[in-house]
Task: inverse folding
């Protein structure tokens, strides 16, 4: 149909959110894309400079914990679709400050669900509430366990994953109790441009560049699955438009890496692009005390979205890493502005 949709994207100034906003603004010029973001330390409107003047794009600075504010936005903008990405997203921060994770991830999600229900009822036709979650809700795998399926039981270990698990349960409860047309996806680790440099890949690229130590948790044996962020954004587009209401879909890169091997790949790529002798940055690797409750391995079985909707990751890891390293090396000012302020104090507290 030609009907214009009014899609509220929360957390659109963050890492994944900015890629999702860009994709929707460019791909759906007849839809109105409203980006709601509180601009916490992790939110950066610079991530969206290239699309901010587009006529179908609106930014609203606001907190998902402000229920009255959400009601106003739903009514004023006749919101009929939600793609919910706003969250506190960093596991290490959740260990030092669990309350802000419960506040934003649990209560914030509940506020959004309730604002949607109140403004959309009694007729949910044409409406959709899409909640973005993580594979970390499923807990940890050993090296030879099968990858997580949508039917795995929840077993979160960190305050971050516990808060995301809780929000997922609220989303399903709104479907089962009130009939809210929800959809959920649980994705593995994302990487790519515009990721806040407290996360492993941008942090380490920047440290290698500046000959700073690379703090590796434990022995670097933990395994993560990595997905290029634009592949995640494409999956979100597909699920928002074609996924089945009430369903959960796992999204992953079929791309498991031991932390230490990933770090060595980053070192090789940065050294090569900076024309340094091979192996010259290996000495930066510094083993530090393991993260408390550190999950050994995550792996995701994404055959459901592949079979139902034909999605599969399109960016090979070598290509994705090359693009990503290149982007951070070429966007030093973006990094400098971020690492200048508050973030620096946090970094010093965490890593000395
Ligand atoms: P991010 O930290 O880069 O961005 C989060 C955004 O949410 C920021 O722009 C921030 O300002 C905003 N925000 C935080 N609290 C808010 C509040 N109370 N009200 C409104 N806005 C608020 O996070 P990300 O890595 O882009 O993750 C986005 C979503 O995807 C999260 O829900 C996260 O759990 C999920 N996820 C992330 C990954 C990953 O690898 N990064 C993997 C799977 C799922």
Result:
């Amino acid at each position: 149909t030609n009907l214009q949709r009014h899609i509220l994207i929360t957390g659109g100034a963050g890492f994944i959110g900015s890629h999702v906003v860009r994709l929707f603004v460019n791909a759906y010029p007849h839809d109105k894309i409203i980006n709601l973001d509180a601009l916490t330390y992790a939110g950066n409107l610079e991530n969206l400079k290239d699309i901010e003047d587009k006529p179908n794009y609106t930014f609203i600075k606001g907190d998902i914990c402000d229920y009255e504010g959400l009601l106003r936005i739903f009514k004023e903008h006749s919101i009929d679709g939600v793609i919910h990405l706003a969250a506190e997203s960093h596991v290490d921060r959740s260990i030092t400050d669990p309350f802000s994770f419960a506040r934003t991830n649990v209560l914030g999600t509940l506020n959004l669900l309730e604002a949607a229900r109140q403004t959309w009822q009694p007729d949910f036709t044409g409406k959709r509430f899409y909640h973005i979650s993580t594979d970390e809700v499923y807990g940890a795998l050993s090296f030879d366990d099968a990858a997580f399926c949508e039917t795995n039981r929840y077993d979160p270990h960190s305050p971050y994953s516990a808060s995301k698990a809780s929000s997922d349960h609220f989303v399903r409860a709104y479907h089962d109790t009130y009939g809210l047309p929800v959809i959920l996806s649980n994705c593995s680790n994302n990487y790519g441009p515009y990721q806040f440099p407290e996360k492993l890949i941008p942090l380490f690229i920047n440290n290698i560049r500046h000959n700073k130590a690379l703090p590796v948790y434990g022995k670097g044996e933990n395994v993560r699955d990595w997905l290029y962020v634009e592949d995640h954004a494409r999956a979100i587009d597909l699920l928002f438009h074609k996924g089945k209401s009430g369903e959960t879909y796992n999204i992953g890169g079929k791309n498991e890496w031991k932390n230490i091997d990933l770090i060595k790949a980053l070192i090789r790529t940065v050294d090569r692009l900076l024309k340094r002798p091979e192996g010259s940055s290996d000495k930066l690797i510094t083993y530090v005390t393991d993260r408390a409750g550190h999950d050994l391995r995550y792996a995701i079985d994404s055959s459901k979205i592949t079979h139902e909707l034909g999605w599969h990751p399109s960016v090979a890891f070598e290509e994705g890493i090359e693009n990503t390293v290149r982007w951070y090396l070429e966007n030093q000012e973006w990094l400098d502005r971020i690492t200048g302020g508050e973030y620096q104090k946090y970094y010093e507290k965490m890593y000395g």
